[in-house]
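Can anyone check this?
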Amino acid sequence: MLRIAICPYELHFKRPAATSRGALTTRRLYLLRAWDAGNPTRVGWGECGPLPGLTQSPLPSFTFALETALRDLHAGGRQRLWDTPFTRGEAGLPTHGLIWMDTVDSLLRQIETKVAAGFTVIKMKVGALPFVDELRLLSEIRRAYPAHQVELRLDANGAFAPDTAPGILDQLARLDVAFLEQPIGAGQWAHMAEICRLSPIPIALDEELIPIVDADTRRRLLDAVQPQHLIIKPTLLGSFRTCERWIDDATARGIQWWINSLLESNIGLNAICQWASAIGEGRVHGLGTGTLFDNNIVAPIYLAGHELVMRQDHPWIFPANASATTGHNDRM
């Protein structure tokens, strides 16, 4: 008999993470375990991490957790969900360097550290400060690190208004931005289509994808808005298969796509990285958020320079209260 247990777990940020939706200091998750009652020592792990203010329902995140746990269980409960050079510890998985908005000096120090570690792609949040201040900060960064040295990706999290976004994009274009994620709030297809058509820099859809649950609406969105990029987040979209449908439809329309994590613990990050290594090899995705927390789950996945790597000699250490085979919340 298949049994399922769910346990809450709270991650603590090493420092507040500023976004256009406010500063994050903690991240509440639910760890999911799956095992067969006849063999309780073989366990599959998953992670449900809906983000308040972003996710409309916990269901996609729970679906992602259940899919991950069952895949892990069926593969032997060793947290190896795909067999790739990355999962075998034979190759690293490049990621972008995530930079959070701060003072000029702090930003430059962050980027200097990332560049010294080998990062060539930097992603920065915008929309948390008045734009005139952010533009000044970004200009300082671009003067220190020109486009031939560092690719710059920006994420607005829907912070700009439809009437001001075009002017903002015109000013950002001077900074050789690779693309800007979600300049305006989701659900404004006509405005977003106009922005994607006229913007001097490429536009990526992110939050726009969250409420889409059927193939017809997915294709209508892509055809109506015609973005240049998609940001694929399994925690938000519900399953790897759903993500692959987005990728298939994007590829058919000439739209670039990138896989991103969403502040998961190492359990969720491990699954996303393994999947990315299986389908997105050679791309620089956004997968390095595990280092933001001071109480992340101990795991063999870690950041080495600009790459995530798997250390086969490092064990997983799961929270004691989540590892018990009693006190389960559900069974199937």
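Reply from J.R.: I decoded it. The longest strand covers residues 2-19.
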